[in-house]
Amino acid sequence: HHRVRGLVAYLSAVFPKFDEQNCDRYLLFNELFPAEEFDQGKLSLVFTYSQKCLEQFLIQEQLQNEPGQQKILLLRKLIQQRAYPAFEKKLHKQEKSHHQLPLRNADYYFQAYQLAKQADDYYNLIDRRRGDNSLEEKQKNLNLFFLLEKLKDACETKVRQNIMKVHFQDHWMDLVLRENSSRQEDFMEYPS
Q1: Handedness of CA 95, 96, 97, 102 (dihedral sign)
Q2: Chain segment 89-117, per-residue pLDDT in tens
Q3: What pTM was estimated for this model as a whole?
C-alpha cells in the first residue's frame, strides 16, 4: 500500500520529533492525501495497515532471536508442502543438534517436545504401522518441561507468599511437588 510507505517515509523524516506539531492528524492526512478533504476513515485505514506491518516486522525481529522456533516453523512448512525427504533430513539434523546442547533447562525440554511433536505428526501422517518412539519422546519432554516450569513457579510462589503475605493454591503444583518428592531418584537423570 503506497500510503503506508508514505506514512513510514514521513515519520522517518521527522524522527525522533513525534510531537503534536509533526503528528497532527490533519497534517498527516495532507501528507498522505494531498489536495483531498480530510477523511478520518481514510487515515484510520492507513494506520490500521501500518499497525499490521509493524506487528509483522516485530514478529520477524523476534524470530531472529529464536532460531529454535524458526526450525520448528520450517519443519511445519515442509510437512505442509509434502516435502517429506527434506523434512526427514532436516528433522534428523535438528534433533542431533538439539541433543548436543549442554544446558538442560525448561527451554531445552520445550524445544525437544516441539521437535518430537513434529516427528509424531509426521509419523501419524505417513505410516502408523512402522515402529517409532516420537510419541513417547514427545510425552517425556512435555512432562519434563511441565515439571521444571511448575518447580520454578513453586519457588516463585513461595517467595511471593512470604513477601506479600498472600496464599496461592494450585492443585497441579501440589501434585508436581508430591511427585517430585516421591521420585527423586528417577529425576536425578535430569539435573535441571
Answers
A1: positive
A2: 999 999 999 999 988 889 999 999 999 99
A3: 0.72
